[in-house]
Amino acid sequence: MNHNVYAVIMAGGSGERFWPLSTPECPKQFLRLSSGKSLLRETVDRIASLVPIERQVVVAGEQHASLVQQQLPELASANLISEPVGRNTAACIGLASLFIERRDPDAVIVILPADHHIPQSTAFLGAVVMAIQAARERDGIVTIGVKPNRPETGYGYMRIGPAIDSGVHSVLEFREKPDEKTARHYLESGNYFWNAGIFVVQNRTIQELTRTHLPGHWARLEQIRSVVGTARYGDVLAAIYPTFEKISIDYGVLEKADNNYMVHGPFEWDDLGSWTALDRVVAQDEDDNVVIGRHVGIDTSHCIIYEQTGKVVATIGLRDLIIAQTEHGLLICSKSRAQDVRALLQKMAGQ
Protein backbone atom coordinates (compact mmCIF):
# COMPACT_ATOMS: atom_id res chain seq x y z
CA MET A 1 0.00 0.00 0.00
CA ASN A 2 2.87 2.38 0.72
CA HIS A 3 5.20 1.53 -2.15
CA ASN A 4 4.74 5.03 -3.62
CA VAL A 5 5.10 6.96 -0.35
CA TYR A 6 8.20 9.12 -0.03
CA ALA A 7 9.48 11.19 2.87
CA VAL A 8 10.90 14.67 2.39
CA ILE A 9 13.03 15.57 5.42
CA MET A 10 13.74 19.28 5.66
CA ALA A 11 17.16 19.69 7.28
CA GLY A 12 18.00 23.21 6.20
CA GLY A 13 17.15 25.26 9.31
CA SER A 14 19.68 27.38 11.17
CA GLY A 15 18.49 26.83 14.77
CA GLU A 16 19.70 30.28 15.81
CA ARG A 17 17.79 30.35 19.09
CA PHE A 18 19.94 27.46 20.37
CA TRP A 19 23.18 29.48 20.20
CA PRO A 20 25.90 28.94 21.35
CA LEU A 21 25.22 25.21 20.94
CA SER A 22 23.71 25.55 17.47
CA THR A 23 25.98 27.36 15.01
CA PRO A 24 26.02 27.97 11.24
CA GLU A 25 28.58 25.19 10.91
CA CYS A 26 26.52 22.69 12.93
CA PRO A 27 22.90 23.79 13.36
CA LYS A 28 20.31 22.30 15.68
CA GLN A 29 19.14 19.40 13.49
CA PHE A 30 22.61 17.81 13.64
CA LEU A 31 22.85 18.01 17.44
CA ARG A 32 21.97 15.54 20.18
CA LEU A 33 19.53 17.37 22.44
CA SER A 34 17.07 14.91 23.94
CA SER A 35 18.73 11.54 23.30
CA GLY A 36 21.94 9.93 22.15
CA LYS A 37 20.99 10.54 18.52
CA SER A 38 20.95 13.73 16.50
CA LEU A 39 17.54 15.18 15.69
CA LEU A 40 18.09 14.35 12.01
CA ARG A 41 18.90 10.73 12.86
CA GLU A 42 15.82 10.51 15.07
CA THR A 43 13.62 11.82 12.24
CA VAL A 44 14.97 9.29 9.73
CA ASP A 45 14.60 6.39 12.16
CA ARG A 46 11.10 7.45 13.24
CA ILE A 47 9.63 7.12 9.74
CA ALA A 48 11.81 4.24 8.50
CA SER A 49 9.39 1.39 9.24
CA LEU A 50 6.80 3.10 7.04
CA VAL A 51 9.07 4.77 4.48
CA PRO A 52 12.43 3.00 4.09
CA ILE A 53 15.62 5.00 3.62
CA GLU A 54 15.53 4.28 -0.11
CA ARG A 55 12.45 6.51 -0.38
CA GLN A 56 13.60 9.21 2.01
CA VAL A 57 14.87 12.46 0.52
CA VAL A 58 16.86 14.86 2.71
CA VAL A 59 17.06 18.54 1.75
CA ALA A 60 19.90 20.45 3.42
CA GLY A 61 22.22 23.37 2.81
CA GLU A 62 25.12 22.48 0.56
CA GLN A 63 27.53 23.50 3.35
CA HIS A 64 26.03 20.72 5.50
CA ALA A 65 26.13 17.92 2.92
CA SER A 66 29.11 16.28 4.61
CA LEU A 67 27.30 16.35 7.99
CA VAL A 68 24.29 14.62 6.45
CA GLN A 69 26.51 11.98 4.87
CA GLN A 70 28.35 11.48 8.14
CA GLN A 71 25.17 11.02 10.15
CA LEU A 72 23.28 9.06 7.46
CA PRO A 73 25.91 6.92 5.70
CA GLU A 74 23.19 4.64 4.31
CA LEU A 75 21.47 7.52 2.46
CA ALA A 76 22.13 7.31 -1.28
CA SER A 77 23.78 10.40 -2.76
CA ALA A 78 20.82 10.76 -5.14
CA ASN A 79 18.56 11.15 -2.09
CA LEU A 80 20.45 14.16 -0.74
CA ILE A 81 19.35 17.46 -2.27
CA SER A 82 21.57 20.43 -1.54
CA GLU A 83 20.28 24.00 -1.40
CA PRO A 84 22.79 26.67 -2.48
CA VAL A 85 21.14 29.04 0.02
CA GLY A 86 18.22 28.75 2.42
CA ARG A 87 14.95 30.01 0.97
CA ASN A 88 12.40 28.67 3.50
CA THR A 89 10.10 25.69 3.15
CA ALA A 90 8.11 26.53 -0.01
CA ALA A 91 11.26 26.46 -2.15
CA CYS A 92 12.66 23.46 -0.28
CA ILE A 93 9.53 21.35 -0.81
CA GLY A 94 9.17 22.49 -4.41
CA LEU A 95 12.74 21.45 -5.22
CA ALA A 96 12.28 18.04 -3.60
CA SER A 97 9.06 17.51 -5.58
CA LEU A 98 11.00 17.77 -8.85
CA PHE A 99 13.23 14.86 -7.91
CA ILE A 100 10.39 12.71 -6.59
CA GLU A 101 8.24 13.12 -9.70
CA ARG A 102 11.07 11.62 -11.78
CA ARG A 103 10.99 8.51 -9.62
CA ASP A 104 7.22 8.14 -9.28
CA PRO A 105 4.66 10.49 -10.89
CA ASP A 106 2.00 9.11 -8.50
CA ALA A 107 4.02 9.61 -5.32
CA VAL A 108 2.55 10.66 -1.99
CA ILE A 109 5.00 12.65 0.11
CA VAL A 110 5.31 12.92 3.88
CA ILE A 111 7.00 16.23 4.68
CA LEU A 112 8.95 16.25 7.95
CA PRO A 113 11.06 18.88 9.70
CA ALA A 114 14.33 17.38 10.92
CA ASP A 115 14.34 19.09 14.31
CA HIS A 116 11.25 17.91 16.20
CA HIS A 117 10.93 15.88 19.38
CA ILE A 118 8.41 13.02 19.01
CA PRO A 119 9.15 10.19 21.46
CA GLN A 120 6.02 8.10 20.78
CA SER A 121 6.83 6.52 17.43
CA THR A 122 3.87 4.13 17.29
CA ALA A 123 1.29 6.89 17.74
CA PHE A 124 3.20 9.06 15.27
CA LEU A 125 3.19 6.35 12.60
CA GLY A 126 -0.52 5.70 13.14
CA ALA A 127 -1.32 9.35 12.48
CA VAL A 128 0.88 9.40 9.37
CA VAL A 129 -0.84 6.29 7.97
CA MET A 130 -4.23 7.95 8.47
CA ALA A 131 -2.96 11.13 6.81
CA ILE A 132 -1.63 9.18 3.81
CA GLN A 133 -5.04 7.59 3.28
CA ALA A 134 -6.76 10.98 3.57
CA ALA A 135 -4.35 12.57 1.08
CA ARG A 136 -5.04 9.83 -1.44
CA GLU A 137 -8.79 10.08 -1.07
CA ARG A 138 -9.24 13.85 -0.87
CA ASP A 139 -6.51 15.27 -3.09
CA GLY A 140 -5.58 17.94 -0.57
CA ILE A 141 -2.93 18.78 2.00
CA VAL A 142 -3.26 16.88 5.27
CA THR A 143 -1.53 18.43 8.28
CA ILE A 144 -0.80 16.54 11.48
CA GLY A 145 -2.31 18.53 14.34
CA VAL A 146 -1.39 18.25 18.01
CA LYS A 147 -3.85 19.08 20.79
CA PRO A 148 -2.40 22.03 22.74
CA ASN A 149 -1.75 21.55 26.45
CA ARG A 150 -0.60 25.11 27.23
CA PRO A 151 -1.15 28.61 25.80
CA GLU A 152 1.95 28.44 23.62
CA THR A 153 2.77 31.69 21.77
CA GLY A 154 5.61 30.25 19.69
CA TYR A 155 3.56 27.82 17.58
CA GLY A 156 1.12 28.17 14.71
CA TYR A 157 -2.47 26.98 15.22
CA MET A 158 -5.26 25.52 13.07
CA ARG A 159 -8.97 26.01 13.64
CA ILE A 160 -10.75 22.85 12.62
CA GLY A 161 -14.29 22.04 11.58
CA PRO A 162 -16.35 18.93 12.38
CA ALA A 163 -14.97 15.54 11.41
CA ILE A 164 -15.66 14.77 7.75
CA ASP A 165 -14.37 11.23 8.04
CA SER A 166 -13.00 8.99 10.75
CA GLY A 167 -10.23 11.06 12.33
CA VAL A 168 -10.11 13.60 9.49
CA HIS A 169 -11.21 17.23 9.92
CA SER A 170 -11.39 20.14 7.53
CA VAL A 171 -9.13 23.06 8.44
CA LEU A 172 -11.10 26.31 8.54
CA GLU A 173 -8.14 28.63 9.04
CA PHE A 174 -4.49 28.82 10.01
CA ARG A 175 -3.35 31.22 12.70
CA GLU A 176 0.27 32.10 13.22
CA LYS A 177 1.97 32.70 16.56
CA PRO A 178 -0.62 34.43 18.81
CA ASP A 179 -0.20 36.60 21.87
CA GLU A 180 -0.79 34.93 25.25
CA LYS A 181 -4.39 36.09 25.61
CA THR A 182 -5.29 34.71 22.18
CA ALA A 183 -3.39 31.49 22.84
CA ARG A 184 -5.41 30.97 26.04
CA HIS A 185 -8.61 31.43 24.04
CA TYR A 186 -7.42 28.83 21.53
CA LEU A 187 -6.60 26.41 24.34
CA GLU A 188 -10.00 26.83 26.00
CA SER A 189 -12.05 26.66 22.81
CA GLY A 190 -11.15 23.05 22.06
CA ASN A 191 -11.24 23.43 18.28
CA TYR A 192 -7.72 24.76 17.78
CA PHE A 193 -4.75 22.46 17.26
CA TRP A 194 -1.05 23.16 16.99
CA ASN A 195 0.27 22.99 13.45
CA ALA A 196 3.06 20.44 13.86
CA GLY A 197 4.58 21.31 10.48
CA ILE A 198 4.16 17.71 9.28
CA PHE A 199 2.26 17.48 6.00
CA VAL A 200 1.11 14.64 3.77
CA VAL A 201 0.11 15.36 0.17
CA GLN A 202 0.22 13.87 -3.29
CA ASN A 203 3.28 15.18 -5.09
CA ARG A 204 1.30 16.39 -8.08
CA THR A 205 -1.11 18.19 -5.72
CA ILE A 206 1.62 20.22 -4.01
CA GLN A 207 2.99 21.13 -7.42
CA GLU A 208 -0.41 22.28 -8.65
CA LEU A 209 -1.01 24.31 -5.49
CA THR A 210 2.41 25.92 -5.84
CA ARG A 211 1.64 26.77 -9.46
CA THR A 212 -1.65 28.36 -8.41
CA HIS A 213 -0.65 30.25 -5.28
CA LEU A 214 3.07 30.91 -5.83
CA PRO A 215 3.39 31.39 -9.59
CA GLY A 216 6.78 33.06 -9.22
CA HIS A 217 8.09 30.02 -7.40
CA TRP A 218 6.65 27.68 -9.97
CA ALA A 219 8.19 29.56 -12.91
CA ARG A 220 11.61 29.13 -11.30
CA LEU A 221 10.95 25.51 -10.44
CA GLU A 222 10.09 24.78 -14.06
CA GLN A 223 13.44 26.19 -15.14
CA ILE A 224 15.18 23.89 -12.67
CA ARG A 225 12.92 20.99 -13.62
CA SER A 226 14.08 21.19 -17.24
CA VAL A 227 17.68 20.41 -16.26
CA VAL A 228 17.27 17.94 -13.38
CA GLY A 229 19.45 14.93 -14.15
CA THR A 230 21.63 16.79 -16.67
CA ALA A 231 25.11 18.30 -16.50
CA ARG A 232 23.53 21.79 -16.42
CA TYR A 233 21.64 21.21 -13.20
CA GLY A 234 24.27 22.56 -10.80
CA ASP A 235 24.82 25.81 -12.68
CA VAL A 236 21.12 26.46 -13.22
CA LEU A 237 20.30 25.74 -9.58
CA ALA A 238 23.07 28.05 -8.38
CA ALA A 239 21.78 30.85 -10.60
CA ILE A 240 18.04 30.49 -9.94
CA TYR A 241 17.66 29.25 -6.38
CA PRO A 242 18.90 32.45 -4.67
CA THR A 243 16.17 34.39 -6.53
CA PHE A 244 13.32 32.52 -4.79
CA GLU A 245 11.28 34.60 -2.37
CA LYS A 246 11.81 33.50 1.22
CA ILE A 247 8.38 32.21 2.18
CA SER A 248 7.10 29.20 4.10
CA ILE A 249 4.76 26.61 2.66
CA ASP A 250 2.29 27.67 5.35
CA TYR A 251 2.10 31.31 4.27
CA GLY A 252 2.61 30.70 0.57
CA VAL A 253 0.27 27.77 -0.03
CA LEU A 254 -1.65 26.35 2.94
CA GLU A 255 -3.25 29.61 4.05
CA LYS A 256 -4.47 30.25 0.50
CA ALA A 257 -5.66 26.76 -0.40
CA ASP A 258 -9.22 25.53 0.19
CA ASN A 259 -8.46 21.80 0.37
CA ASN A 260 -6.78 21.61 3.78
CA TYR A 261 -7.40 18.76 6.20
CA MET A 262 -6.11 17.73 9.61
CA VAL A 263 -5.42 14.41 11.26
CA HIS A 264 -4.94 14.45 15.02
CA GLY A 265 -1.52 13.33 16.16
CA PRO A 266 -2.11 11.81 19.64
CA PHE A 267 1.52 11.97 20.64
CA GLU A 268 3.92 14.14 22.59
CA TRP A 269 5.45 16.74 20.29
CA ASP A 270 7.78 19.69 20.58
CA ASP A 271 9.47 21.66 17.83
CA LEU A 272 12.49 22.42 20.05
CA GLY A 273 12.39 26.04 18.99
CA SER A 274 14.49 27.48 21.80
CA TRP A 275 16.41 26.59 24.96
CA THR A 276 13.25 26.50 27.08
CA ALA A 277 12.08 23.44 25.14
CA LEU A 278 14.58 21.42 27.17
CA ASP A 279 12.35 21.92 30.21
CA ARG A 280 9.76 19.81 28.42
CA VAL A 281 11.93 17.04 26.95
CA VAL A 282 14.81 16.52 29.41
CA ALA A 283 14.45 15.18 32.97
CA GLN A 284 14.82 17.79 35.71
CA ASP A 285 16.66 17.46 39.00
CA GLU A 286 15.18 17.89 42.48
CA ASP A 287 15.38 21.70 42.11
CA ASP A 288 13.59 21.66 38.76
CA ASN A 289 16.80 22.42 36.88
CA VAL A 290 17.73 20.88 33.55
CA VAL A 291 21.45 20.20 33.83
CA ILE A 292 23.63 18.88 31.01
CA GLY A 293 27.29 18.98 31.94
CA ARG A 294 28.99 19.82 35.25
CA HIS A 295 27.09 22.04 37.69
CA VAL A 296 27.29 22.81 41.39
CA GLY A 297 24.66 25.14 42.79
CA ILE A 298 23.23 26.65 45.94
CA ASP A 299 19.65 27.94 45.97
CA THR A 300 19.44 27.50 42.19
CA SER A 301 16.13 26.36 40.73
CA HIS A 302 14.11 26.26 37.51
CA CYS A 303 17.23 26.92 35.44
CA ILE A 304 18.56 25.36 32.24
CA ILE A 305 22.30 24.80 32.54
CA TYR A 306 24.27 23.42 29.59
CA GLU A 307 28.04 23.05 29.80
CA GLN A 308 30.03 21.55 26.93
CA THR A 309 33.62 22.61 27.63
CA GLY A 310 34.33 20.34 30.58
CA LYS A 311 34.44 23.19 33.09
CA VAL A 312 32.13 23.43 36.06
CA VAL A 313 29.27 25.94 36.19
CA ALA A 314 28.83 27.20 39.77
CA THR A 315 25.69 29.14 40.69
CA ILE A 316 24.24 30.78 43.79
CA GLY A 317 20.74 32.19 44.23
CA LEU A 318 19.53 31.91 40.65
CA ARG A 319 16.09 31.12 39.24
CA ASP A 320 14.54 30.92 35.77
CA LEU A 321 17.78 31.47 33.86
CA ILE A 322 19.40 29.84 30.85
CA ILE A 323 23.16 29.35 31.17
CA ALA A 324 24.75 27.73 28.13
CA GLN A 325 28.50 27.49 27.62
CA THR A 326 30.21 25.92 24.63
CA GLU A 327 33.43 26.53 22.73
CA HIS A 328 31.54 29.15 20.72
CA GLY A 329 30.50 31.36 23.61
CA LEU A 330 28.54 31.83 26.82
CA LEU A 331 24.85 32.69 26.95
CA ILE A 332 23.13 33.92 30.11
CA CYS A 333 19.54 35.02 29.77
CA SER A 334 16.14 34.94 31.41
CA LYS A 335 13.95 32.07 30.31
CA SER A 336 11.28 34.61 29.42
CA ARG A 337 13.63 36.09 26.80
CA ALA A 338 14.68 32.81 25.15
CA GLN A 339 13.03 33.78 21.86
CA ASP A 340 15.30 36.86 21.68
CA VAL A 341 18.51 34.88 21.17
CA ARG A 342 18.11 35.30 17.42
CA ALA A 343 17.99 39.09 17.83
CA LEU A 344 21.09 38.87 20.01
CA LEU A 345 22.95 37.04 17.24
CA GLN A 346 21.98 39.72 14.76
CA LYS A 347 23.36 42.37 17.10
CA MET A 348 26.58 40.38 17.53
CA ALA A 349 26.93 40.06 13.76
CA GLY A 350 26.72 43.83 13.40
CA GLN A 351 29.65 44.47 15.71
Helix percentage: 25-40%
Could you say which structural class the secondary elements and strand pairing correspond to? alpha/beta
What CATH architecture of the largest domain do you see?
A: Alpha-Beta Complex
Sketch the topology as an H/E string, one letter per element.
EHEHEHEHEEEHEHHHHEHEEEEEEH
Q: Output the CATH homologous superfamily of the largest domain.
A: Spore Coat Polysaccharide Biosynthesis Protein SpsA, Chain A
> Based on DSSP secondary structure assignment, what is the total number of beta strands?
15
Instruction: Based on Cα principal axes, name the global outline.
Output: globular
Gyration radius from CA atoms, angstroms: 21 Å
The fold-level CATH name of the largest domain is: Spore Coat Polysaccharide Biosynthesis Protein SpsA, Chain A
CATH class call of the largest domain:
Alpha Beta
Percentage of residues in DSSP E strands = 25-35%
What does this structure look like?
The structure is a single chain. By secondary structure, the chain is α/β, with parallel strands linked by helices. The protein has 2 domains: 5-264, Spore Coat Polysaccharide Biosynthesis Protein SpsA, Chain A (Alpha-Beta Complex); 275-349, no CATH class. Helices cover 31% and strands 25% of the residues. It contains 11 helices and 15 strands. It has helices spanning 39-47, 65-71, 88-103, 121-138, 180-189, 203-213, 215-225, 233-240, 249-254, 278-281, 341-349, and strands at residues 5-10, 56-61, 80-83, 108-113, 141-146, 157-165, 168-175, 192-202, 260-264, 290-292, 295-298, 304-307, 313-316, 321-326, 329-334. A 5-stranded mixed beta barrel has the order 5-8-6-7-9. Helix 3 (88-103) crosses helix 6 (203-213) and helix 3 (88-103) packs across helix 7 (215-225). The longest helix is centred in the middle third of the chain and has 18 residues, at 121-138. It is globular, with a radius of gyration of 21 Å.
